[in-house]
């Protein structure tokens, strides 16, 4: 099936930059060409005159398909002990969750689905598209995005009530430190055993996932805010692992160490209420400054805590605080795609990449009235607004 999106303003977020009135040719689910006045006689034409085309939005931190607000059901928080590094969120995602339809209506075509933050280490993060053939396998883009970990109030709140470790921040850090020491010992035994099966330690999926982190095959996705971010940076130095700072409220107080660490930041959600403790400083201006100083920044929904359409509104807040609109849209598209290790397929509109596209009737993040008119995933129209 060939489709030709005709006459849109195209923000490619790639080498071609912005085309004021361009076309996108789609063949077999991929972008075949982007340019002006493209011709393809046997293509289905989508008239996009007056619309703005951007890459499908990538939500780098979400829980949709694993938590259901309406029913209270959850399948991605295995809170039986403080470390469950062996579990994978891939096994807990409901591919038929109505949250994915909501995501498509908001132009969100891919989400990094993370385990919840009840445990210090919660399991492996998976990236899935918002549409597929009814199975998680058909939606999956990257099964091993990161190893999820959580600092601060969430694990404290779960295990402190049980009079178990961790009930303090020093307990959280201690659990993380001990886990990675155990992983180091596991890897050492494997190395010493080499080709001698008798000496090889028993295969342990929790240790194997940690070994992927220490071999730099995937980062740690750190739920953290305020001074917990400094603890994370120091732990990463101690064990030499890569990481992302997720939520990152209060980042403006720790700008220098964050910039020096060179870690990506997945900020938000911005719409949370200000209050005591970990959510007291929702410093949107820090995102603008971090981006200006070279930090790879993305914006999250933390869905279904916040609805998917709020991700564009959050990008609008970043613009309101001084970021150029193109930089804010990068935080919705190519930046999160890079962070979750999927930018070879998604995040920008380029020939050869997946045809994941969101068409707005205005400039997202700049025009408050801009809404999604059509969403495509793998070249298929998966959402279309009424009257479009």
Structure, briefly:
This protein has 388 residues and is α/β, with parallel strands linked by helices. Helices cover 27% and strands 25% of the residues.
Characteristic terms for this protein:
388 residues, alpha/beta, Urease, subunit C, domain 1, 2 domains, eight-stranded mixed β-sheet, 27% helix
Write the layout of secondary structure elements.
Layout: E1 2-11, E2 18-27, E3 30-35, E4 44-47, E5 52-55, E6 57-62, H1 98-105, E7 108-113, E8 121-129, H2 136-139, E9 140-150, H3 153-160, H4 169-193, H5 205-214, E10 220-224, H6 228-239, E11 243-247, H7 255-261, E12 265-267, H8 284-292, E13 297-299, H9 310-320, H10 325-330, H11 334-339, E14 357-360, E15 372-377, E16 380-384
Care to describe what's here?
The structure is a single chain. The chain has 388 residues and is an alpha/beta fold. It folds into 2 domains: 1-55 and 348-388, Roll (Urease, subunit C, domain 1); 57-346, TIM Barrel, CATH 3.20.20. It has helices at residues 98-105, 136-139, 153-160, 169-193, 205-214, 228-239, 255-261, 284-292, 310-320, 325-330, 334-339, and strands spanning 2-11, 18-27, 30-35, 44-47, 52-55, 57-62, 108-113, 121-129, 140-150, 220-224, 243-247, 265-267, 297-299, 357-360, 372-377, 380-384. The strands form 2 sheets. Strands 1, 2, 3, 4, 5, 14, 15 and 16 form an 8-stranded mixed sheet that branches. Strands 6-7-8-9-10-11-12-13 form an 8-stranded mixed sheet. The protein is globular. The protein starts with a strand and ends with a strand.
């Amino acid at each position: 099936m060939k489709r030709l999106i005709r006459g849109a303003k195209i923000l490619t977020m790639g080498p071609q930059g912005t085309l004021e009135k361009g076309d996108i040719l789609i063949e077999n689910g991929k972008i075949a060409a982007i340019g002006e006045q493209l011709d393809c006689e046997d293509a289905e034409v989508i008239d996009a005159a007056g619309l703005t085309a951007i890459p499908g939005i990538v939500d780098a931190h979400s829980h949709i398909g694993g938590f259901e607000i309406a029913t209270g059901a959850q399948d991605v928080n295995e809170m039986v002990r403080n470390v469950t590094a062996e579990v994978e969120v891939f096994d807990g995602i409901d591919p038929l969750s109505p949250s994915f339809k909501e995501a498509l209506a908001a132009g969100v075509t891919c989400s990094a689905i993370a385990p919840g933050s009840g445990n210090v280490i919660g399991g492996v993060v998976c990236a899935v598209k918002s549409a597929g053939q009814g199975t998680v396998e058909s939606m999956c883009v990257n099964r091993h995005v990161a190893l999820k970990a959580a600092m601060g109030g969430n694990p404290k709140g779960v295990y402190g009530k049980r009079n178990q470790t961790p009930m303090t921040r020093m307990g959280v850090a201690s659990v993380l430190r001990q886990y990675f020491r155990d992983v180091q010992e596991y890897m050492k035994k494997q190395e010493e055993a080499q080709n001698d099966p008798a000496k090889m330690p028993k295969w342990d999926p929790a240790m194997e996932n940690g070994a992927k982190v220490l071999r730099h095959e995937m980062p740690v996705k750190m739920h953290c805010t305020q001074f917990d971010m400094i603890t994370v940076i120091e732990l990463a130095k101690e064990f030499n692992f890569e990481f992302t700072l997720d939520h990152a409220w209060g980042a403006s107080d720790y700008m220098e160490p964050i910039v020096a660490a060179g870690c990506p930041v997945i900020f938000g959600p911005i719409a949370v209420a200000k209050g005591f403790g970990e959510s007291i400083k929702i410093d949107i201006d820090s995102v603008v400054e971090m981006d200006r100083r070279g930090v790879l920044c993305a914006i999250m929904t933390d869905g279904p805590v916040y609805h998917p359409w709020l991700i564009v509104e959050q990008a609008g807040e970043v613009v309101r605080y001084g970021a150029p609109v193109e930089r804010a849209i990068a935080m919705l598209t190519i930046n999160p795609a890079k962070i979750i290790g999927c930018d070879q397929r998604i995040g920008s509109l380029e020939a050869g990449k997946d045809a994941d596209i969101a068409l707005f009737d205005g400039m997202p993040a700049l025009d408050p009235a801009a809404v999604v008119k059509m969403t495509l995933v793998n070249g298929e129209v998966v959402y279309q607004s009424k009257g479009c």
